[in-house]
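Query structure, 272 tokens:
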């Protein structure tokens, strides 16, 4: 059933987001034509208006991709689970956890796709065969040198960083959902209450993050005071521990926000 919910969610959101992606890539191609052919440098006066409008359209569409993605995520959650559609969703033979998981999964998916499309549009506008050839040559050189220096651990660290980014994204999305759910507990001014809840949760997360960072800093200074010199193996162990520690930290907050949202949707839901 989770797969069906995710499929339905993708269809419902794709109608809004895919046209934006197409528009962004189209503007990128148009701008590349202007820049790549040198036409942009030749245009003067009123003749440069098409290029200026194209650049302006690209900038506006780039901003719209991320803004609309953000609001679609909020709108789908609120309308589908807390709004009028909530009556229908709560009659389906699926658990609250399944409903929330489908929303989080697709929200994360569209955030990743939006970032990918944005990067692709930039690459289209900046494309130059020689520059790109040199870029990939240097990139593979760095990867090769990293592997020769520390072995397979280099790729493991890259993988851990990717996992950290994904978990951080899910934690942020879960915090948004928890804020909306908390705001829905109030009978009046629910949007304002949700915004206040988001600020409060963000403050709590930041305060705990700062406390942990200070603790790590104190521990690090103590190591410096006793003149501990790390070899490559120890340095790698510290790097792994640092990345995994931050990932666990984000994962714990993700679970906390997920539990809060699930509890409210399951036990405190008021669709009136």
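Result returned for the query:
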């Amino acid at each position: 059933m989770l797969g069906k919910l995710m499929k339905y969610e993708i269809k419902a959101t794709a109608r809004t987001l895919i046209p934006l992606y197409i528009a962004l890539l189209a503007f990128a191609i148009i701008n590349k034509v202007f820049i790549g052919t040198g036409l942009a440098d030749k245009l003067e006066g009123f003749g440069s208006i098409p290029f200026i409008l194209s650049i302006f359209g690209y900038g506006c569409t780039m901003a719209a991709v991320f803004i609309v993605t953000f609001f679609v995520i909020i709108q789908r959650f609120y309308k589908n689970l807390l709004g009028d559609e909530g009556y229908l969703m709560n009659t389906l033979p699926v658990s609250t956890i399944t409903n929330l998981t489908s929303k989080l999964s697709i929200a994360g998916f569209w955030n990743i796709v939006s970032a990918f499309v944005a990067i692709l549009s930039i690459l289209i506008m900046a494309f130059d065969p020689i520059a790109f050839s040199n870029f990939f040559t240097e990139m593979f050189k760095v990867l090769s040198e990293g592997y020769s220096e520390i072995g397979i651990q280099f790729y493991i660290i890259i993988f851990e960083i990717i996992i950290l980014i994904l978990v951080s994204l899910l934690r942020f999305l879960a915090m948004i959902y928890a804020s909306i759910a908390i705001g829905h507990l109030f009978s009046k001014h629910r949007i304002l209450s949700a915004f206040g809840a988001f600020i409060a949760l963000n403050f709590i997360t930041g305060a705990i993050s700062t406390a942990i960072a200070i603790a790590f800093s104190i521990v690090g200074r103590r190591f410096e005071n006793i003149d501990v010199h790390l070899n490559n193996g120890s340095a790698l162990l510290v790097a792994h521990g640092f990345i995994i520690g931050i990932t666990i930290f984000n994962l714990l907050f993700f679970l906390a926000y997920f539990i809060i949202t699930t509890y409210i949707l399951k036990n405190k839901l008021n669709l009136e």
